[in-house]
Amino acid sequence: MMLSLQNEHINKRLTAENQNVEAARFDLKRLQSRLIQLKSEERHFENKLGKKGASQAQSISKAKAAEALATENAQLKEKNRCLQESMGRMEHQMQGEIGKLREQITSRDVMEKEVRYELLLCQSLNEEFKARLGSANGHVGRLRNTIIKVNGEKDTLKLQLRHLHNNCTKLLTEIGNVKSFRNTKLTPGRKSGIAAIIQEILKPIRERLDSIKLESIVDMKPEEKEEDLYNA
């Protein structure tokens, strides 16, 4: 935009100087026409005054014509000198403006290269961001799957805990019955019932421990002594 305005300003000045040149040419043609007119008037005076006064009239006419021609010639020379000075100033100014335009073009090229470099850098960062975003989306997907799995395991654990609670309640009931009959020997059927309840309690615990790859606990065997049951 700046370059087009400067070019338009230079074109306007060139047009104005061309008009001045055309005006000077017109003045020169007018001077030539005036000279032809003076020569015509000179011949007219010669014919009118006759041969006797021809020499005097011719000298007067020539003097006037020479004076007018000298005046107009001086004016034309002055206009030509002013025109040359104006053309010189204009040429010097145009050279300065051309130099400024070249500097602006060079600066513009440098800026364009910098903008292209910044654009390439932004594109590279955008691609890197897309890659990282894809990786993050993958992590989010895996995390969602893990959360779903954990929620499933939590529900399973709740069921196991509920089952364990029921078994513990049964065990406490049986222990209460055993303590109430402390001096009574346990029958094999009661001992087997208590051992079965303990096995039911330990079963989900062993499965849970095995699922997280821990060492399995030692099962309590039905053949354990009666004193162990009392201590429990």
Description:
This protein has 232 residues and is an all-alpha fold. The protein folds into two domains: 2-132; 144-231. The chain has helices at 2-49, 54-180, 188-211, 226-231. Helix 1 (2-49) runs antiparallel to helix 2. Mean pLDDT is 71; it is low at 213-232. Keywords: Coiled coil. Residues 14-93 form a coiled coil.
Q: How far apart, in Å, are the first and last alpha carbons?
A: 97 Å
How would the global form be characterised?
Answer: rod-shaped
Hey, roughly how much beta strand do the residues contain?
under 5%
Radius of gyration over C-alpha positions, nearest whole angstrom: 61 Å
Structural class: mainly alpha
Number of strands: 0
- The H/E string reads HHHH
Proportion of helical residues: over 70%
Unreliable residue stretches: 213-232
State the major sheet.
none
- The total tally of domains equals 2
What is the helix tally?
4
Keywords: Coiled coil
List the helices and strands and how they pair.
Blueprint: H1 2-49, H2 54-180, H3 188-211, H4 226-231
Helix pairs in contact: 1-2, 2-3
What key phrases describe this protein's structure?
232 residues, mainly alpha, 2 domains, 4 helices, 88% helix, disordered C terminus
Brief characterization of the structure:
This protein is an all-alpha fold.
